[in-house]
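Submission checklist for the structure archive. All mandatory fields must be present; incomplete records are returned to the submitter.

[x] Identifier: RNA polymerase subunit sigma-70
[x] Organism: Rhizobium loti
[x] Residue count: 337
[x] Sequence attached
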Amino acid sequence: MGRPVLDRPAFERLATTHRRELKLHCYRMMGSLHEADDLVQETFLKAWRGRMQFDGRGSPRGWLYTIATNACLNAIKARSSAHRVLEEPARPPTEGPAAAGPAAGLSWLEPYPDAELPDLVDGEPGPDARYETGEAVRLAFVAAIQLLPPRQRAALLLCDVLGWSALETAQLLGGTTASVNSALQRARATLGKRYPQGRPLQRSQPNPEEGRLLERYVRAWRAANLDGFIELLREDATYHMPPWHDWYRGRPAIHDFFKTVWGNFAGYRAVATRANGQPAVAIYARRRQDPEWRAQSLHVIEPAQGAIASLTVYVGPLGAGLFAAFGLPPTWSEPEA
């Protein structure tokens, strides 16, 4: 008997089933929502063209992950930076007004809309996974694994996030089981230097307390209430604002910075959303003498014990450019009374 060949309807069903989980995998590898979109398209194009090579003995899912992972590794090799950053290593927190300005030479980690997260069924992590599904999509986790060399990153994602065995991963990446185990050991050691327990702290599922925190955050921005916003932060909170170099630590420092920029706009409109499994808020701002509310920034919130432990605010053209990916328009229209 000849080898089974995927016809177009079967291939389309396969693509529909696995598109979202493959896009998330590409995002984790690349740190970029836009690159992930392109690489998923490339994966399915290569899969369709090479469908005669699929002999039906392995799983279609594994075959697609092989193509997607290799596409990511090739894309990383071709670009100027092997990883994207959420913060600059070893850069101390800023005190006072932001002075360093945008970092044009850095590639910044992008947030991921919860609306694009897969409905995990067949794609549930295997028994060897070390990370929970929700934990492995958090902004802090994706930022941490960006520090790994690409092949170590791929091995950690396949084994510790997806739960594949070292043997399966070696077959996908090429090489031996020993080489995969070695890459995993190095990857885990690198994460261990960044996190006391070798991994980001686990988060609980969204709860009513988190919902109330998000509501208070939205109200504070809609009311242009700077003090109300600052009250939601933990005393030791951190604030990053890609693509600016500057970042702040501690409620007083964050307050002093915002006090210098809060009055730059005539007002704000806030829309609740979610990114990376975390609460998020899209901010529209209106400049004085401007009738329109324009996309201004995207805020990703890390809650802890009823307060905000860290806040990442994508500002400037970078922030406004993310609105479309979250299904948000570039300008805000006030609802009719």
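[x] Structure attached
Curator remark: The CA atoms of residues 263 and 304 lie 29 Å apart. The first strand starts at residue 233 and ends at 240.
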